[in-house]
Amino acid sequence: MSVLHVVVLIPFLWAAAVPLMRKWTRRLHVGLLIIPLPAVLFAYFIGQISEIGNQSYTLAALPWIPSLHIYFTVYLDGLSLLFALLISGIGSLVVLYSIFYMDKQKEALGPFYIYLLLFMGAMLGVVLSDNLIALYGFWELTSISSFLLIAFWHRRERSLYGALKSMLITVFGGLAMLAGFVLLYMMAGTFSIRELVANVDVISGQELFIPAMLLVLLGAFTKSAQFPFHIWLPDAMEAPTPVSAYLHSATMVKAGLYLAARLSPVFAGEPVWFWLVSGTGIATLIYGAYRALKQTDLKAMLAFSTISQLGLIMSLLGLGSAAAFYSQTGESLLYVKATTAAVFHLINHAIFKGAMFMVVGIVDHETGTRDIRKLGGLMSVMPVTFTIALIGSFSMAGLPPFNGFLSKEMFFTAVLSVLKLDVGNMQQLGAIFPAVAWIASIFTFVYSMLLVFRTFAGKRQFEKLAKQPHEAPLGMLVPAVILASLAVVFGLFPNLLSYTLIAPAMAAIHPALLAEGGQFEVSIYLWHGWTPEIAMTVGVIAVGTLLYRLHGRTKVLHQPLFEKISLNGVYDGGLRGAVSGAKRLTDRYMTGSIRQYLIYIFVFLIASLGITMVRSTDLRWDFTGFAPMSLYEGVIIFALIVAVIAVPFARSRMMAIILTGTVGYIVTLFFVIFRAPDLALTQMIVETVSVTLFLLCFYHLPKLKKELESLRFRLPNFLIALGVGVTMTLVALFAVGGRSFESISDFFLKESYNLGGGKNVVNVILVDFRGFDTLLEITVLGIASYGIYALIRLKRDDEAIPVPAGHREERSPIKLIRSNDVIFNTIAKLVIFIILTFSLFLFFSGHNEPGGGFIGGLMTAGALVLFTMAFGMSTIKEVIPIDFRLVSAIGILVALFTGIGSFLFGAPFLSHTFGYFDLPLLGHTELATAMLFDLGVYLTVVGITMTIILAIGRDR
Fold first, then answer.
1. Which residues of 588-604 are buried (b: 16+ CB within 10 A; e: fewer)?
2. How far is CA 817 from CA 662, 814, 821, in A?
3. Would the pTM count as exceeding 0.85?
4. Around Cβ 832, how many Cβ atoms within 10 Å?
5. Please, are residues 480 and 486 in contact by the beta-carbon 8 Å criterion?
6. CA 265 – CA 593 distance, rounded (Å)
7. Could you report the per-residue pLDDT of 505-547, keeping only the tens digit for each?
């Protein structure tokens, strides 16, 4: 495992460690324990600048699912380094800011920083992944973690609304993007981005190329809030301000820009890409800028400003892709300047927008409002904050000498160069780009001036504020001051970035335009003479100043034009329609009748399997070589049939449970006769625990009542029952009677010891050959146990009734079924010890003998259930004072980290190894890493079983 792999994974490990830091977080702010991580990551990436600047790159791969060409491949080049610096650098400042913004006495800071670290790790995974499937996994994790961050104040309805909207839209785009990745794989036979770029000539002419492009762009547009998918971003402003400063200025919203830039070498030579990326970007630019004028909430104004600026960068990436049309001529350098502007403005926007979000957070924190109509005159009481806001706003407006001015001038250069492009209808449509860019820049100037001067200048309105305003604490000011200082430094000395970050990033976006060892020339100057761009800037300032003066008096500038029709209305109406339609459809078949549910299931089963068997041409019956039925088997089958038939005729639930258990124990005898000790042990223990669980559940049901009811023959029921019986009989006969391919069991039998180091084939399959299945199974079981616990706990909390004085509280069923039999209790002490000892034997010997973690865990849980029944719940709580939910969680983590540990040795996930060692007392002993995985299974099974048993036992 490389350092880059550790860099991606360490935020997740740090997040997992946050709950373990409670001892320190009682005295310290949680953020103080978090901030070293992004700071160290930022320092690491700073150290990579010199190496990457020399046209070098870092590549490291870990096999994940090699047979499907899925690898956890990390790749650090100029583009990914730029984004990694933004993620870690802005992340460090945001965590510092949050320490003073988030009150540890009022907020649940543990979950907040866990979500933040998950997001940081996911973003690093996105920008450092070379494999498209790995990229997609991290991409969707950013959506999930951002959902949790936006909904952090979950008691606010608008927070939940904004979180749900952002997740629905971005996840929808992510699924479309995944489909595009699959199409690319179908054309190129690889998920590697580097290999796709190398084979672009092979895939560019195929019929799936354009569909793949459109699907990928859908993912990019939804993530980067491009029109018309932008509607999630303003509602995401319900998140705490540190979240907005991090996600919505420098990281999450730029993931779509990263995707467009990263895949530009694949799609840039296609006119569709040029028009869609540049056209969508320029439309988003002017729409967002215009909508920002109409906002009265400072964060909403910044939200639409962000949408506009993201559109600006997206349009520049589209315009820069025109260089691919002239890759064989020097004219391509004219359009490469657009890419230069895109990369430079991406950096500048993260700086000034991060500072502005922090300023708005300070204003909200110190005044109690973000409503610009209630603000004014704050510069006298918040001079430092005003200075930061002035620098940030002027940079955002594109005024000298700040960094935003330079990238805005480069933007004007790029849109003017489009007039020379002879692609498509550019001769007629090309003038649209500079015109829209100029108008959008005017709007940007106006809302930037509104934001700073309506808030900090003008008449004081302190009487309208919730609290007396004052300057923010030093900890909140320092991060914003750092960003504002960078806006000045990069404005005065822009070439600090030219060959350290911008040129390497451009080399990653336009690799085909560079000769081997070559480098793009990047020269950025604060003054570049009297040019058309300067004239456009002068016009922006002049017209913008006029509109700023007219803003409050001109309806078109400060009031919505279409109040009844909006994209938000379309979203809300569509969501309401989908929910109501789904409810009506569900109500039609979810009637509450178990009989009807079984009819649905059985009819579908008969139809699907029946059609498959009828249409199949290679099904056959072949009973040659079958062993004759022995007398013992016949007796057991007869007993099994009798027990099954007796169940519906039982007169009490107790008898029904006993008969059901009898059926399970008889099946155990079959496994014994067929020489399957692992299955026999598992079946026996599962049946024992299940019977106990049934007894606890049935305790809550009313007693069976005898009712006279006339039975009549129902033809549909008879046909369904007959159909299920005939279908399953045919399936069984076809399954054992003939096979169209060799059984995989021969492979397991031959290679169990050679590859897995175990003679118990069943256990080796569970922990090695099919270990991934086992990991997912215990995870699902763990989630189910938590769900059962939550439902019962919720029921108890909702139905809790105070017990009047003098009345006894009703006892739980486990207390009720506690045995008072002295003989039983005495024998139980001995039996429990024997069972626990046997369970440990099964666990340790399971790799070579019958047993394993699953059987051992069930056996241990059975012993604990017996202990509970013999001595009561209060006793087991005193003897074993642990939370079994935590036990199951630890078990899942042990199994997961065992799989991850194989990466340290360059092996695929969940790969195992074994060896023989001479150990003290034990002698020559085999040790296998599979035992660690089995330990996780063991702990999970014990935790899950006891969580369910004790949860139901505590229920009243």
1. eeeeeeeeeeeeeebee
2. 21, 5, 11
3. no
4. 18
5. no
6. 58
7. 999 998 888 877 778 888 888 887 788 999 999 999 999 999 9
